[in-house]
Amino acid sequence: MIPSAPRRRQAELANGPKARRGPYAAALGELERAANDVELVIDGARVGLTHLDKVLWTPRPDAGLRAFTRRDQLRYLLQVAPVLLGHVRDRPLTLIRQPGGIDARRFVHFHYEQPLPAFVETVDIWSENNRRPERYLLCNNVATLLWLAHVGSLEIHPWHSRCRAGRDAPSAGADAATSLDALEASALNRPDVLVCDLDPYMYAGTERAGAQPEFNADAWARCKEVALSLKALLDAMGLTSLVKTSGKTGLHVLVPIARTLTYDATRAIAQTLGQHLARQHPSLVTIDQRVGGRTGRIFFDYGMNARVKTLIAPYSPRGAPGAPVAMPIAWSALPDAMPLDYTMETVPALLARDGDLWAKVLRKPPNLATIIGG
Questions:
Q1: Alpha-carbon distance values, 89 to 93, 156, 234, 247, 345 (Å)
Q2: In what order do the strands lie in the sheet with 93-97?
Q3: How many degrees, rounded to 5, is the angle at CA 217 between CA 215 and CA 223?
Q4: How far apart, in whole angstroms, are the C-alpha atoms of residue 34 and residue 39?
Q5: How far, in Å, CA of 142 to CA of 101, rounded?
Q6: C-alpha 302: how far from chain center
Q7: What mean pLDDT comes out for the span 261-276?
Q8: At what angle do helices 70-88 and 25-33 cross, to 10 degrees?
Q9: What is the DSSP string of 205-267?
Q10: Strand, coil or helix: 281
Q11: What does the DSSP assignment read for 126-178?
């Protein structure tokens, strides 16, 4: 279990600058006044929401972690929607659904087979396995964001690429549905970030047999050490990097890039970065894909640079005790950061104070092909 931040630190974050109610103040007011069901009108779309007081994040009193309901989730999403949507728009989604809450069964869906509301946008993508186009959901508006919560999605996992071509993706096609060749020539095969997923495989000693490592302070400190070493390497290459908490035990370091490279190319570059760090810190970093080969070290997962592979979206909650959020943070804040500094309770106020720390960097990403090519 992820320990909470010291109580004083939690209080500072939760009671700091109050979150602005933002453009959806009227919807927030209706949500607060509703009994257990409500229909909200969001940008002209009607969204029916039920079981508002259902507890989805069960409390952990021994760790000082309170319960969070669907109403809490919807309130949070309305508060952060203008920023969160900027990070998921036009990106196919993998749905992480836990309709029964964090202690119930977890479903991973690539496709939603039931009828969709009219406001939910989709994109058809060629399936290499099934040799036909398949429909993926997009989250391009606030109504869809709320509807995803209504159908039990506790987490939002978007692709690292966008389905619409643009000036930053020269020669990329818009057709990703008619064939594998079309998909590989499309904008969806050109990511706009290079992903470095840092996953601690240092066990706390309290895990069930065969379970993933749980949070422990030593692993977290080592993960931050590796992230800072990676930042130094990227700085030396002239590349701007961004860091966010995963919301669980690890960190995500991302390099924004213009959409000029394919997933194969970014994966090869990420692998080279991982190999360099593993040579620098052989007792601390591994790129070994075998689970047994990762134990006791930080796993640098360069394989996340691939179509269909997804990471938790910035500002998305996680289906874990305390409702932690995958939070973009300043590099200067990383040494003192703890995962549960950033929750559905604390993040709206932090966003109101600081804004989206990534917005300016993402606006004009560099052409990595030019930088690597010299």
A1: 10, 12, 27, 21, 24
A2: 107-109, 93-97, 153-158
A3: 80
A4: 9
A5: 22
A6: 16
A7: 96
A8: 160
A9: S-PPTTPPPPP-HHHHHHHHHHHHHHHHHHHHTT---EEEE-SSS-EEEEEE--TTS-HHHHH
A10: coil
A11: EETTTTEEEEEE---SHHHHHHHHHTTEEEEEE-SS-SS--TTSTT-BS--SS
Which pair of structure tokens corresponds to residue 265?
């190319």
Q: Give the DSSP H or E segment for 108.
A: strand 107-109
- Distance CA(80)–CA(74), nearest Å, equals 10
What confidence tens digit (pLDDT) does each residue in 180-239 have?
Answer: 999 999 999 999 999 999 999 877 667 677 677 778 889 999 999 999 999 999 999 999
- Cα gap 89→79, rounded to integer Å: 17
Tell me the residue type at 39: E
Let me know how long the chain is: 374
User: Strand 193-200's sheet: what is its strand order?
Assistant: 285-286, 298-301, 193-200, 251-256, 242-245, 328-329
Give yes or no for a contact between 261 and 371, defined as CB atoms under 8 angstroms apart: no
Contact 34, 69 (CB under 8 A): no
Instruction: Quote the pTM value.
Output: 0.91
User: 343 has which bridge partners?
Assistant: 324
Q: Which residues lie closer than 8 Å to 115 by C-beta, 6 or more apart? A: none
Please calculate the CA angle 365-367-370 and round it to the nearest 5 degrees: 155
CB-based contact 219:249 (threshold 8 Å): yes
